[in-house]
Every structure is written in structure tokens, then in C-alpha cells.
What we know:
This is Sulfur carrier protein ThiS. By secondary structure, this protein is mainly β. It contains 1 helix and 5 strands.
Amino acid sequence: MKVIVNGEPREVPEGASVAEIVASVTAAGSGVAAALNDEVVRRSAWDATPLNEADRLEVLTAVQGG
């Protein structure tokens, strides 16, 4: 199925979870947030939150610097 990840179309397997897609986008273990269709998804819910056709997922990572 097709979803939009960080503004780019992507083919993902049916039933893919937020956690699976986040893992495919970044290897960061912390400082990562996800928003599905403009709603923040709690990290504890990533595994249990499936994606559907045409969903929009934004994966954000915190960057430190000055």
C-alpha cells in the first residue's frame, strides 16, 4: 500500500505499524517523535498503531547543536 512518509510517497506492507516505519527511517534510539495524519502518536502506541492506505506519517528527530 502507499503512504506518505516525511512528504515522500512510499510503498509499505499491509498492516505495517508506525514502529516499523520509524525504524526504517531512522536508527536513532531516542529523541524521535511520530505524527500520523497530523496527530502525535505516543511512543508506547507505535507497535499497536497500523498504517492505512494514503496515511501521512511524519518522523521527527531531535537535533542538538548551537
